[in-house]
Write a structure and sequence with these properties.
With 279 residues, this protein is α/β, with parallel strands linked by helices. The chain contains twelve helices and eight strands. An eight-stranded mixed β-sheet has the order 1-2-4-3-5-6-7-8, sandwiched between helices. The longest helix is centred in the middle third of the chain and has 18 residues. It is globular and about 50 Å long. The relative contact order is 0.15. The model has no long low-confidence stretch (mean pLDDT 96).
């Protein structure tokens, strides 16, 4: 089992293919398996790395709540790349992982050849409701387990479209979620999701971010639409992709469209032809 010992924790990772590195960071309700459609597609041309954050077995699940913070997850990713001997990579992520990718680009711009920032910004608008719902989810994990939490996610409006258009894929997504650590998920929700800066609070940092970026959001993902547009307007070399009739998990809900557009973005960056950005 490939394990990287970084920052006092063990991170499980997988790498597939050869070429320039492309790393994917998973969402709160997902794990490294959420990127399977991207691994199979992009590993034909790239060295694709997926991994589980701390709190997600078989990575370490720290028992100290203080071991969970957005900045720690960003530094875990940087340390993982160093462990793998990677000085620079395309860095992508979805939701919580999209936030990690964004903040990785801010903290380590020299290590980011490009950023793919997907479904990023939950909790930026409707803040009070987000915090209440997040605490309710954390308690659900701790008191009733991951199965009950999976049932809760199945009721969310931003997830319902996935269930309707792809019942088989949706069932697999929920099955993976039911395997998550209740403690790790609860501590991640409280320490990472609820305490990270909102996208609006990152305005100054976004304006200084020179890394070429692709922002991806589904048009049914209401909490992320406004933050997505905000990032597109603030990040100097950012493009915005809105996938129609799509919810929060665009990479598994619409893998064909997602992979096509990300592939075009990476090709444009690698040829120095991404809009206003020049290599």
């Amino acid at each position: 089992m490939p394990i990287a010992r970084v920052n006092g924790v063990e991170l499980y990772y997988e790498e597939t293919g050869q070429g320039f590195p492309l790393v994917w960071s998973h969402e709160f309700a997902g794990d490294y398996r959420s990127w399977e459609a991207q691994v199979r597609y992009f590993s034909r041309r790239y060295r694709v790395i997926t991994y589980n954050d701390r709190g997600y077995p078989p990575s370490s699940v720290p028992t100290d709540p203080a071991a969970y913070a957005n900045d720690l997850l960003v530094e875990d990713l940087a340390a993982l790349l160093r462990h793998l001997g990677i000085a620079r990579a395309h860095v992508g992520g979805l939701s919580m992982g999209g936030n990690i990718a964004l903040n990785f680009g801010i903290a380590h711009p020299a290590m980011a050849a490009s950023l793919i920032i997907c479904a990023c910004g939950s909790g930026t608008v409707g803040r009070e409701t987000f915090l209440k719902d997040s605490e309710r989810t954390a308690r659900l994990f701790l008191e009733q387990g991951a199965g009950a939490a999976a049932d809760h996610f199945a009721s969310l409006a931003s997830r319902r479209g996935f269930a309707e258009k792809d019942p088989r894929g949706w069932a697999e997504f929920l099955a993976h979620l039911r395997e998550h650590s209740p403690q790790g998920s609860a501590f991640t929700m409280r320490g990472v999701q609820m305490k990270r800066k909102t996208i609006f609070e990152l305005e100054t940092e976004l304006a200084r971010l020179e890394v070429p970026s692709l922002i991806v959001v589904g048009d049914q993902d209401e909490p992320c639409l406004e933050p997505g547009l905000f990032m597109k307007r603030r990040i100097p070399h950012a493009g915005l992709l809105v996938l129609p009739m799509s919810g929060h998990t665009t990479n598994i809900e619409e893998p064909g469209a997602f992979n096509l557009h990300v592939g075009e973005f990476l090709a444009a960056v690698e040829n120095g032809r991404w809009g206003t950005w020049k290599a």
